[in-house]
Design goal:
Length: about 700
């Protein structure tokens, strides 16, 4: 758990495999002594003595600061920046006190959780700036058996007002090393493409300024000595936040590395009245001695069990069919009934009516905000349609885009001030829509009532919660001039509030997140939406790369992945049905097809894939994930927790592959290849596959009783 040694003024977070060790210096500064391999008593003593020797003297850039401010002898990018009433920006916080408590305290917004108080404990370090009487509380919650640390910072203003210009959630100074970063940049329809690069002497900012994160995910991994899947140290940090974030990597001349993770300070400032409190989002930190693969699996386990929540966390997820690529905006009641009939034949469980069911939405030009049935398309209303679909033994769900408002909508005509806008400036439209001001409580009250009405009337089982444009117009008439710099964060916290209210009101409702595909896929939104539409790009080959990149910090069960039509609607590339199915089966599988446009043979083939997925989905959901061969000729596998079952996903051209995660001393039967092989041999010599281009397979491996 958390061991405090008052003599050395150290705090040791000791997990099963890792240790995080911090100390209070003689000058009352918090410093990082070690983050890595678990320390036994002897190693702990050595680390502390070595640190004691360097921590003397005035603060400088040679000190491994744990949460450095601006002012004093450290001009590296700080963990926080405060503007004071007298115009100065320097701060000097000093350790005051601490407390260690079992469990994990609750804060507004998304956060990981405990199921009982024994599984984690929390250290609160209270720091004070004697000149301004501001208080900084650093919270560290540690899950020893999971080797997961979560961090956040809380600033409480002193007796005079000031401005908060930056507050990170976590800051870490790593010792000198040959560091490489792994990050996940991308764009719309090509989200989370793996990017690995040596850390240079430079300040690198991985960030989002858009309120969406197609272009960068709030995650970074750092490896020492080159990125490797299986060996070496890897540190991972991921922010549980879906708005504007920044991750800074600042390589020092002596190869030390500062990492900062938190809210983006771009176009951000927060007015702090006397006594006001500001809480940063939560950052999840993990270390692994087994390379990036070990790090990903540690994070996956945590996300599956302590970020995702509610009845859908562990339950088998329904196989859904989504109407979007089948009908786009063009459908009538009878079309969706027909889609449902087809879905039933294919073995799907849930019918999702995507965009176009409300207002007068015949294109993306209108009606966002008017969340009432379009009786022209659906004369029996959504409730009537839902009733018919339920009577067929299927579940039913709808698409919403709660954070948006169309200028051509009843809602906008009634409340033009509900759209975000910079005073006196024209709103920049995107997809013909504006952003609704989620910072206003009355907007959220209105939306929860409207959405609840439809959920109740249609007895919805599922909602797809979309968000299709960036926040370019972060201004609001609801807030005074000096608070306009708070808008992006207030918008995000308001959105979380609405997500939480919906979750509380309808705990059984399955909500799938989406943001123009995978533009908002992070640990924040996963607290409310246990699965996310991973990308609007459903092309199987592109999806391999997207799902591969996403897997560095996201468990595959959280990634919505559907079999779609060929040629693909987005890339126009033709791919075999089996390839499309196998790619989707390696994640949260669904269907994006019009059954009526399938031949009898294709229908039978899709139905067989659905049945296959239902047989193996528990391993995809709960198993450990191993990346085996890099895209484009990729392979990955899932291994059940007891190692008795494994699934190998292989995408050609691929001659052979070596497996991972099996029990080396057991034998495994690979029925499809009519082979029984020792686990050790499968992991060393590997399996010959001989898969040609566009060929793919999902092999089940079963351990034989020993
Ligand atoms: C976004 C989503 C799609 C679909 C459309 C509907 O682009 O990512 O899946 O729901 O909106 O307009």
């Amino acid at each position: 758990m958390i061991h405090h040694d008052p003599k050395c003024r150290s705090f040791h977070f000791k997990g099963a495999e890792s240790s995080y060790l911090i100390g209070v210096s003689e000058g009352l500064d918090i410093q990082l002594i070690h983050w890595g391999k678990a320390l036994d008593d002897a190693a702990l003593g050595e680390k502390i003595s070595a640190w004691m020797a360097v921590q003397a003297g005035p603060l400088s850039e040679s000190h491994p600061r744990e949460f450095s401010g601006f002012g004093g002898g450290d001009l590296r990018s700080p963990a926080f920046l405060l503007a004071h009433a007298d115009g100065s920006r320097a701060s000097q916080f000093q350790y005051q006190s601490h407390e260690i408590k079992p469990g994990k305290p609750g804060f507004p917004g998304p956060q990981s959780y405990v199921e009982n108080e024994t599984e984690a404990s929390t250290l609160r370090l209270a720091l004070k700036d004697p000149l301004t009487s501001q208080q900084l509380d650093l919270f560290y919650s540690f899950y020893p058996s999971r080797d997961i640390l979560t961090r956040r910072a809380v600033l409480t203003q002193g007796s005079s007002a000031g401005r908060l210009l930056r507050l990170m959630s976590a800051s870490v100074d790593l010792p000198a090393g040959d560091y490489f970063s792994t990050s996940l940049p991308g764009d719309w329809a090509r989200e989370r493409r793996l990017q690995q690069a040596p850390v240079q002497q430079a300040l690198l900012r991985l960030e989002s300024r858009r309120g969406q994160a197609h272009r960068m995910s709030p995650f970074v991994a750092v490896s020492d000595g080159g990125p490797d899947e299986k060996k070496g140290q890897a540190w991972g940090l991921s922010l549980a936040y879906s708005g504007n974030f920044v991750i800074e990597l600042e390589g020092q001349p002596d190869r030390r590395l500062r990492l900062n993770v938190g809210l983006n300070d771009f176009d951000f400032q927060w007015q702090m009245e006397a006594g006001e409190r500001f809480v940063s989002p939560e950052c999840v930190l993990a270390w692994s001695g087994q390379g990036l693969g070990g790090l990903s699996r540690r994070l996956h386990r945590f996300v599956r069990s302590r970020i995702c929540r509610g009845p859908w966390r562990d339950a088998p997820r329904p196989v859904l069919i989504n109407s979007w690529e089948a009908h786009y905006f063009d459908f009538k009641h009878a079309d969706i009934v027909k889609l449902a009939e087809g879905a039933r034949e294919l073995g799907a469980d849930l019918v999702v009516l995507d965009d176009g069911w409300f207002g007068r939405r015949d294109s993306d030009n209108s009606s966002l905000g008017d969340w009432v049935d379009d009786l022209r398309k659906l004369p029996k209303g959504v409730a009537g349609l839902s009733q018919e679909i339920h009577a067929m033994g299927l579940k039913f769900g709808l698409w919403f885009e709660p954070e948006m408002i169309s200028p051509d909508s009843e809602l906008y005509r009634a409340h033009p001030d509900w759209a975000l806008a910079v005073k006196g400036r024209a709103v920049v439209p995107s997809r013909n829509q504006y952003v609704i001001d989620m910072s206003r409580p009355e907007v959220r009250d209105h939306l929860i009532e409207l959405m609840s009405r439809t959920v109740e009337a249609a007895r919805l089982d599922y909602i797809k919660w979309d968000m299709n444009r960036p926040l370019w117009d972060a201004g609001s008439t609801a807030w005074p001039a000096e608070r306009q710099g708070e808008l992006c964060h207030r918008f995000m916290m308001g959105t979380y509030d609405l997500m939480e209210r919906l979750q509380k009101r309808f705990p059984a409702l399955l909500v799938e997140g989406c943001a123009g595909g995978g533009g908002r896929f992070d640990y924040g939104v996963l607290c409310y939406h246990p699965q996310i539409w991973a990308s609007d790009n459903t092309d199987a080959l592109d999806r391999i790369a997207i799902q591969w990149g996403s897997s560095y910090f996201l468990p595959p069960i959280t990634m919505g992945a559907h079999i779609s039509e060929s040629p693909n609607h987005f890339t126009r590339r033709a791919t075999p049905l089996s390839l499309r199915a196998h790619v989707a089966m390696g994640a949260n599988f669904g269907i994006e097809l019009a059954p009526a446009r399938l031949s009898a043979q294709e229908k039978a083939e899709v139905a067989a894939h659905v049945a296959h997925y239902k047989k193996i989905r528990h391993v995809v959901h709960e198993g450990e994930f191993y990346r085996l061969a890099r895209p484009p000729h990729a392979a990955w596998c899932f291994v059940s927790q007891d190692q008795k079952e494994a699934l190998l996903f292989a995408f050609g051209p691929l001659a052979s592959v070596t497996l991972d995660g099996l029990n080396g001393s057991w034998k495994y039967r690979v029925e499809a290849l009519n082979q029984t092989r020792a686990g050790a041999s499968l992991m060393q010599e590997g399996l010959k596959l001989g898969l040609g281009d566009m060929r793919s397979a999902v092999y089940s491996l079963e351990a034989e009783p020993v």
